[in-house]
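Sequence in, structure out.
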Amino acid sequence: MPVEQLTFWIFSAVMIASSLRVITARNPVHSVLFLVLTFFTAAALWLLLEAEFLGIVLVLVYVGAVMVLFLFVVMMIDVNIAPLREGFVRFLPLGALVGIVMVAELVLIVGPRYFGSDRYAAPPAAPADYSNTEALGRLLYTEYLYQFEIAAFILLVAIIAAITLTMRKRPETTKYQTPGNQVRAGKGDRLRVVQMDSERRERP
C-alpha cells in the first residue's frame, strides 16, 4: 500500500473515532477538544488532496477562532449534562436511521462519479504554476455563483436574527442606559447637599 493511502486511512480512522467521541463524551469540554481533533484530521485530508487553501482555512477559522469561542462558552457556563443526556438512548435509533439515509444519499450522488473502478488511480499531476486558491475562486464566482450568493444571504439573515435576539429589551433582567439622559443630566440631578448640625463629642 502506498504511503499516501496509508496516511489517508490513518487520518480517516482518527477523524471517525474523534467525531464519534464528540457525541458520546460525557464532559462537554472533552467534546469540544475531540471536535478540534476532528477538524485537524479533516485539514490533513484536505492537504492530502492538494487543497492547501481549504486545509489552512479550516485550521485558522474553525480551530483558531470558532472552536476557541466554543471552548470558552462551554467552560464559562454551567451546563447540566444529566437532562441533556436523558433522551440520547431513546432517540438513538432515529439518529442512526437519519445517518444511514445521509450516507446512502452521499453514495448515490458522489459514488458513481468519484468512486468507480479507478478509485485507486493517482490524480493527474498539476502544473508548476497551479494555484488551488485561484481555481477555487474561479469556480465559486463562475459556475457556483448563485449558490454562493444564496449561502451568503442565508448567513446574513442568520447574523441579523442573532443580533435582533440579542438586542431585544428584557427590562426584568437587563439594565439599559440612555446616553441622551446622561448628557442632559445636571449637577442638581446628581448631587444633593444636606445641611446637618455639627455634633460635638463630649470628653469622658
